[in-house]
Amino acid sequence: MTADRTVAVVTGAARGIGAATVLALAQQGWEVLAVDRGKDDPALAYPMGTEAELGEVVAEANWRVEAADRVRPFIADVRDAAALQAAVAEAEARWGGLDAAVAAAGVIAGGVPLWEVPAEQEQAVLDVNLGGVLNLARAAVPAMLRRPPPRHGRFLAVASAAATRGLPMLAAYCAAKAGVTGLVRALAAELGDTGVTANAVSPGSTDTPILAESARLYGLSGAPEFAAQQPLRRLLAPAEVAEVLAFLAGPASSGMTGAVVPVDGGLAL
Ligand SMILES: NC(=O)c1ccc[n+]([C@@H]2O[C@H](COP(=O)([O-])OP(=O)(O)OC[C@H]3O[C@@H](n4cnc5c(N)ncnc54)[C@H](O)[C@@H]3O)[C@@H](O)[C@H]2O)c1
């Protein structure tokens, strides 16, 4: 991959794994459109990333690489297909094309059996965690295919250990994440020999606000209580997941497609 062909769109970029991925890609020379909703979601019981946090991530990334605008912010809700089309169009117009799309935006709700979860929470979990990935693929894959061959397009999604484990009180979240892994496998098969690949990572318990909300839903004192369930006996840092995503975004992952890579401290063992 040449230096002028490293343009990425990352959703969920205001904090956590998405923000760490923006930083990792920027440091590897990518131009990045950092996308986030940037405000709270009335359907959900915990705060989302803010527009100010997104601005801080963008400023930090540009500062680290001593660039004025290698990373740019973009406010969009991943449930809004037109907004993601606009984000991709912005990346193409600004930087001349698209080489990677990382679907990291995600939300959690539950804490009660599925039949007791408020309908609007269940809908948000399905629409953001699965619908948002479909929307990004619909917008980003055609853009990556617009690159002339030989291509190195990378569609990446953040699934979860919840894609394969039956986690009580998180049924919609498990369903959405299992959907993401199915989507990535089918997309990989569709993309075939185009030069665009599709892969996912499945993080384990990673120290971000979504894990703090998971702890609250389970009545735990805080996210650190999840550390004991991972063979590594600690929470992962967002940067540890981002490093794998950045590898998958790059040319060295050319032999992988349809893969779901655990980055989970052994949680799935
Ligand atoms: N932290 C973990 O333990 C863990 C484990 C497995 C999977 N994951 C997955 O990792 C991904 C990143 O989560 P995180 O841990 O960084 O959580 P996080 O809550 O820190 O970050 C999620 C980001 O997504 C944004 N977002 C939420 N809804 C959005 C929407 N509709 N449109 C655009 N942006 C939206 C939020 O504003 C926030 O900035 C998610 O898909 C999550 O399900 C996290």
From TrEMBL:
**Top-level taxon of the source organism:** Bacteria
Q: Which organism is it from?
A: Parafrankia soli
Question: Is DNA-binding set as a keyword in this record?
Answer: no
Q: TM spans, by residue?
A: none
- What's the name of the protein? SDR family mycofactocin-dependent oxidoreductase
Q: Span of the secretion signal? A: none
GO MF annotations for this entry?
oxidoreductase activity
UniProt key word Lipid metabolism: no
Keyword field: Oxidoreductase
